[in-house]
Amino acid sequence: MSEHDTPIKTPKQLIIAVVLAFVIPIVVIVLLTKYIGAMTKVGAGSSALTPESVAERIKPVGRVITEAPAGVAPSAAAGGVKKVRAGSEVYKAQCAACHAAGALGAPKFGDKAAWAARIGKGYEALWQSALKGKGAMGAQGGGAFTDAEIGESVKYLANSAGASF
Known about the structure:
Blueprint lengths: L10 H27 L13 H8 L15 H4 L9 H13 L12 H9 L2 H10 L14 H13 L6
C-alpha cells in the first residue's frame, strides 16, 4: 500500500463507513440520555420522595361516612324510607300542564270517553307509557319524580276518568 492509498477501496465500503459514522454517535447519545435520565436526583435535605410525603400528596380528598351522626336515628341518617308523593301532587306538578287543557292531544283529566280505551289496556301499560313517553308526551321516568310517584299520578289521572287502579 502506498502512502496515498485509503483503507476504503469500494463504494460499498464507503457507504458502510458513512452510515456507521452517523449511527454510532446517535446510538451512544440516546443510551447516555436514558442512563442519565433514569437517575433519581433529590436535592440535599429534600423530603419530597419519602413515603410520608408521597402518601400526603396522593391521599383522598374526601371520605364517605356510613355511620349516623350522634343523636340521629340510623334510618333518618341513611335517608330512611322516602315517602312517595301523592298522585294528586305529582299530577299538579308534572302532568296538569297538558292533561288539564288537553294540549297536543293529551286526554283531559276526568274525560271518561278519552280515557276508556287507555284504561282498557290496564295500569301497567299506562304506567309504562308515562315512564317511556308516548306520542307528544315525553318520558317521565328518571326525572324529578320516582317511577313509583309517576305510577301514583297515573292511578290518580285514570281513576278520575272511571278506572279503579
